[in-house]
Amino acid sequence: MASISTFEQRPFAVSTVAAPTVASLESVTKNYEQIRALRGVDFDVRSGEVVALLGPNGAGKTTAVKLLLGLTQPNSGKVRVFGGDPTNPANRMRTGAMLQVGKVPETLRVREHIDLFSSYYQNPLPLAEVLAAAGLEKIGDRKFGDLSGGQRQRVLFGLAICGNPDLLFLDEPTVGLDVESRRALWDEIRSLVQRGKTVLLTTHYLEEADALADRIAVINQGAIVAEGTPDEIKAKTSGKRIRCITALSLAAVRRIPGVAEVREDRDALEIHTSRAEPVIRELLAKDATLSGLEVTSAGLEEAFLALTQDNNKNENHGN
Amino acid sequence: MSSAAAVLRSPQITRSPGHTATIYAKEAKYEFLKNLRLRLYTASVLSFPLMFYVLFGLVLNSKEAIAGTAVPTYLIATYGTFGVMGASLFGTAAGLASDRGLGWLQVKRASPMPPFAYFVAKVVVSMVFSAIVVLLLIVLGVAFGGVRFPLGEMSSLVATLVVGSIPFSAMGLAIGYFAGPQSAPATINLIYLPMSFCSGLWVPFMFLPKVVKQIALALPPYHLSQLALGVVGAGKHESIAAHWEVLAAFTLICLGVARIGFQRDQDKMYG
Q: Which residues of chain B lie closer than 8 angstroms to A62, CB-CB?
């Protein structure tokens, strides 16, 4: 596509280990009156990557995004965007945001909304390009109030990208969308990444984080409870839990391919893996005396609970 | 700070004055279109003063006079004040309360929009709608009420009322920062309608009960209507400067209250 050449080229390859940090929270605590929204969160986003902040409702995802956008200030800790203050106008020029909005002015047309937001930026994308990238070509002349839920989300996405920003914050971009619209928005996010953008998205769908992100941070009750590649997180959250009594050592089990995590639980071992069958085959081959075999799968909610409990355990050990 | 991170620092950008002017102009243009297409806004802001004027100024009392001034002329000044108040209060408070309460203002604040552009657009557009109301009243009065203005007097009346919309826009910003998105229109009416009555915008001032007349001295619409009446020769010959001073002081107080609301908002977001 000819239009792509006008986008900035990707400045850093994904595989670059030491890609510079473009946005970070350092020991950030945020309270809203009695509610502790974030408790000492450390988190960073590196150039060129897509990071998903995954967690249930009320976990603190939106608070993290608002802090990074400079819409609210932390009670303690540091928030940095491009090495500086997120409220710096020069940094705002380089960021785009898609937030959850209750009501958008309904009497303005799609192209009017985009025209206005584009005017804020130094080097905005041409209107036609924004309409194409957000899948809005056919509804450019419609008033916002006449759009469906999916179309409204696409307009908000268009507003986030119209300034051709380097860094995008997408807060629950696909919430309330049907499967088809969700997939379409995923494609649009992927094409942004191909143009070298850095993306932080929040979601409560593991599937979405898995489909889009290079790295997932799981957040619950204001704390990051797990962080890793989608495969690592999936092994912990949506994978299988194998429980058995075995003569094998912890280290030996850990060496079995596909094993994400092993824990001693009384006289048994608890093994987390994304696929149970190959691990069980290995276990049985290595230990003929193995007994008490149980395989369970954890749903996402249970997995969050498990991750939080892990986190609490760690905290207790620390004390 | 590592050198890699330093590379990513954003260069200081300064918008050219032309670019900034374009943003302010677009913000105002779309604010105008937004309100113009909002039937609730145009219906309440434009039709009420015009309907009242047609009924009480043209159909019923057009041959009569108040304190030596023909009714159709007198009522252009008072319904003009009433219209300006409505255009400004609804134009600022209702939109602000909704944008603020339902998240749209956050989307704007997260963008590189110059923060003042949003507020300036609301105030300017309120002035534009104020001018439209006043001009329509004048057209009706001239066409059907036998109103005759020297051109200088007419432009002076329009200018007075349009500038006089600023205190009510300031008041609207203050209300918009403290009213909820759903309750804002009711709050506006609760202030707007009694204030209009007490200031003599519906019933000419001299016919009001004595106690109401005393209350009126503290109300901004009274002072604006007296300025407008003064232009058409129906004023009470009080000091023009004193009326403007009251309006200016009221504007500053409202902007102060709005600022408190603005500060309070910075840290009151859940999520």
A: 271
- Considering the domain A2-229 in this protein, what is its CATH number? 3.40.50.300
Mutate which of B7, B8, B113 to disrupt the A interface (most A C-beta within 10 Å)? Answer: B8
pTM for the full predicted model: 0.82
Model pLDDT, residue A299: 54
In angstroms, the separation between the Cα of residue B70 and the nearest Cα of chain A is 41
Sequence length of chain A is 319
Q: Is residue A271 within 8 Å of A235, Cβ to Cβ?
A: no
CB < 8 Å to B96, chain A: none
- 33-62 of A, contacting B, C-beta below 8 A: 35, 37, 47, 61-62
Q: Is A18 part of the contact surface with chain B (CB cutoff 8 Å)?
A: yes
Q: Are B34 and B28 in contact (CB under 8 A)?
A: no
Q: Which pLDDT value is given to residue A313?
A: 45
Cβ of A143 under 8 Å from any chain B Cβ? yes
Nearest in space to B46 (alpha carbons), one of B124, B157, B133, B145: B133
Q: B8–A116: do the CB atoms touch at under 8 Å?
A: no
Chosen for mutation from A61, A120, A159, A198 (greatest number of chain B CBs closer than 10 Å) is A120
Asked whether A92 and B110 are in contact (CB, 8 A), the reply is yes
The predicted complex's ipTM stands at 0.89
Q: Within the 192-231 window of chain B, which residues sit less than 8 Å (CB to CB) from chain A?
A: none
Q: Do A101 and B104 touch (CB under 8 A)?
A: yes
What residues pair up with A41 in beta bridges, in sequence order?
A28
A92 in B contact zone (CB under 8 Å): yes
- Collect all residues with Cβ–Cβ distance below 8 Å to A317 and sequence separation of at least 6: none
Which residues make up the CATH 3.40.50.300 domain(s) of chain A? Answer: 2-229
Residue B230 in tokens:
């003064």
In this structure, are strands A50-54 and A198-203 parallel, antiparallel, or unpaired?
A: parallel
CATH class label, A234-318: alpha beta
Q: What is the pLDDT of residues A24-52, one digit of tens each?
A: 999 999 988 778 889 999 999 999 999 99
- C-alpha–C-alpha distance, residues A4 and A2, integer Å: 5
The percentage of residues in chain B with a pLDDT greater than 90, rounded to a whole number, is 70
Question: What are the mean pLDDT values of chain B's consecutive 10-residue runs (271 residues total)?
Answer: 50 83 96 94 89 91 84 94 96 94 93 93 97 96 91 94 97 95 92 93 87 92 95 84 95 96 71 34
CB contact (8 A) between residue B106 and residue A22? no
Residue pair A209/A186 in contact by the 8 Å Cβ criterion: no
The Cβ-side half-sphere exposure at B179, using a 13 Å CA radius, reads 27
Closest-CA residue of chain A to B264: A72
Residues of chain A with CATH 3.30.70: 234-318
| 10-residue stretch averages of pLDDT, chain A, 319 residues long | 42 57 92 86 92 88 93 91 90 93 93 97 94 92 93 94 95 86 88 90 88 90 88 73 90 87 86 85 92 76 56 42
